[in-house]
Design a protein that fits this description.
Mean pLDDT: 83
Strand content: 15-25%
CATH topology of the largest domain: Rossmann fold
Number of strands: 12
Order of helices and strands: EHEEHHHEHEEEEEEHEE
Number of domains: 2
Low-confidence stretches: 259-280
Strand order of the largest sheet: 3-4-5-1-6-7
Length: 280
């Protein structure tokens, strides 16, 4: 149970939710994802949302690829596009060989890869990850780390819970702790390298140069806009690589990714509130 919670999620941010077992972290995430409705108060904002639970309900009458295509269609994608995205994400997570395997026959780890893939193929504006790394192998966890950074670079908000306090600690923009029945701001982890976000443009269709310094997470839009996130120690080298490329990339914005953001007056993403005495 949660009471007295008033949370406005910042846009283009990675948000960590902490707390002991049983304090209500999953309840908060399910409210943000609109899986559950508050008994009092309201959740405002209607971003395109995707949710990954800790335990994926694998006993569904689909193959892995069939399930992803079905969810893609639910999100409004054409069948061909949904199939292409399903194949791309299964490949990234190392699960392409299981595309035609019934969900009920998948291992826990592969089932979790499908669960994560169904959320990412929707390219959500709000991505909610509730212990989504549980059951994934090391390589798949790194893919999910990078995918979360890519969603933030694309302008989305990513909210996550994970039992490992080091998970994405160096990239977190804001953190909250569930304690008692409420929610409080939590300090950001120290001792981690800050990250820098860079926005650059080139003629439409221009690919990013290969082997960019720092192996940045990035998104590349059809209009030629690239949004990249890289460790701060690599930012100067990345800028130099973009500026020396042919065709040359034009730098539009450079900003530090770390640091808590103040809650905006009008939050663009899911915001649990209650009239008078906020609480989900």
């Amino acid at each position: 149970m949660l009471r007295g919670v008033d949370l406005a999620l910042p846009a283009r941010a990675l948000v960590r939710v902490e707390g002991a077992n049983g304090t209500g972290k999953s309840t908060l995430l399910r409210l943000l994802a609109r899986i559950d409705a508050p008994s009092e108060g309201r959740v405002t904002g209607r971003p395109r949302t995707a949710y990954v639970p800790e335990r994926f309900p694998a006993a569904l009458p689909f193959t892995a690829a069939g399930y992803l295509v079905h969810l893609g269609r639910v999100h409004g994608l054409r069948a061909a596009e949904a199939a292409a995205r399903a194949d791309r994400w299964l490949t990234r997570f190392g699960a392409a060989a299981h595309a035609r395997t019934p969900l009920a026959e998948l291992s826990k780890g592969t089932s979790q890869k499908v669960a994560v893939a169904q959320a990412l193929l929707a390219e959500p504006e709000l991505l909610v990850l509730d212990e989504a790394w549980t059951g994934l192998d090391t390589e798949a966890r790194e893919v999910l780390d990078r995918a979360g950074a890519e969603r933030v670079a694309a302008g989305a908000t990513v909210v996550y819970v994970d039992h490992d306090p080091r998970r994405l600690a160096g990239a977190v923009d804001a953190a909250y702790r569930v304690e008692g029945l409420g929610l409080a701001a939590a300090p950001l982890a120290t001792g981690f390298e800050p990250r820098v976000r860079i926005e650059a443009t080139a003629p439409p269709g221009t690919p990013l140069p290969p082997g960019l310094p720092g192996a940045p997470a990035y998104t590349l839009s059809d209009d030629g806009t690239a949004r990249l996130t890289v460790p701060a120690t690599h930012s100067d080298a990345l800028l130099a690589a973009l500026l020396s490329a042919r065709p040359r990339w034009h730098i539009g914005c450079v900003q530090q990714a770390r640091g808590a953001h103040p809650a905006p007056e009008s939050a663009p993403h899911g915001t649990p509130t209650r009239d008078g005495d906020p609480a989900p």
